[in-house]
Amino acid sequence: MRRNAKTMNRLDLTQRLVARLKHDEAVIGGIGNSNFDLWNAGKRPQNFYMLGSMGLAGPIAFGVALAQPKRRVIALEGDGSLLMQLGSLATIAMMKPKNLILVVWDNGMYQITGSQKTATEVADLVEIARSAGIEKSAWASDETEFERLIERALIEDGPWFIAARIDGSAPKGQTPREPVIIKDNFMRGLGVKGG
Amino acid sequence: MWFPPSAPLRATRFGGHLPPQGGKGAQGWLFATLQRALVLANCCGSTLMGTMANAGKPEAWHEAIIRAFKDNDVKIVVYVPDNVLRPLIDAVTNDSYFTAFPTTREEEAIGIVSGAAMAGGRGIVLMQTSGFATLANVLASLCVAAQIPALMMVSERGTLGEFQIGQAIVCRTMRPVLESLGIEHHTVTRLDEAHFIVDRTIKQAFKTQAPAALILSPLLTAKREG
Question: Which residues of A touch B120 (CB under 8 A)?
Fold first, then answer.
């Protein structure tokens, strides 16, 4: 349950996640603070930082997972972003990509636009994901359980949906707005030649 | 239309697909003349094969399109359903070459094919005109900004006999949106041009790393009377 989960810190959890990536796993950082803290957790060529298209971290990650079924693919998304594309959870549940992990940071607010509250005050995202058909859906009750869930998700077949309650800390730095360079680095990181 | 001299002429595909010539007098002569004209134009090797496939049975529009998908390794087909697109959707769903599935919104589908494109896969989104109207933000902020070859195929509603005023109005927004984003787009109106346009558009999108839209006109897809 959301209300039983400890309120944690997004950068700390992102660092714990990145530290566990040993096999060039792809990570899609959702628009705003999700990708800023991915950037702040250390640059990796397998990271894609979204600078727009709010709500599409999950679908982009699913597309990567479809094209490269042997690679684990992780989407980092905020609660406001996910609420914009709840339908994508049903698509992912239907298609059952084994190598896809959705991670959602839920601080109950549209933090970057002035901390207006989101509907997660009443809507439980894990219950929504499970009801959409993603069986492996869980709240991380604390940092240790978050790490344990990520470690399982990197080994056991998915799709996975892992949610964490986070505080309202602002990111220390922001991703440079260079979409073509970000995309080019990401493709190289995945071993793909453009054109 | 301009047909470059280097357009592929798939001579090997001619054999066995053309109906026997000369056997029926004027009809046979017509076939031979038609074939010569098309070969001289040096543009339609694949089209001729397609048009005459299955011993004289004309190739359907969706078969020409599927041929272009396969010629270019486009294996992921993501769609929000549309009745006009039904034969194409049915065909890709029943063909194990393709991974074909619906999404809940067109934006979601663009996200999926964009992710696939960056990971070396090739996909296309099928949708109706009204669905395209939901895409300006994702096209601008993801596909155009990051130069991602997201392919779109739009069945054109709202024109040439539309009965819903809402469809007619939203249809008028489609080409201005594509133009203002600088997205390459072509409208397919004729069966004999369908493979060529789809094939070349897919090739250009991936070579130049740019999104592209193919609009299927009722001139191509509508069931004709009589």
Answer: 67-68, 187, 190-192
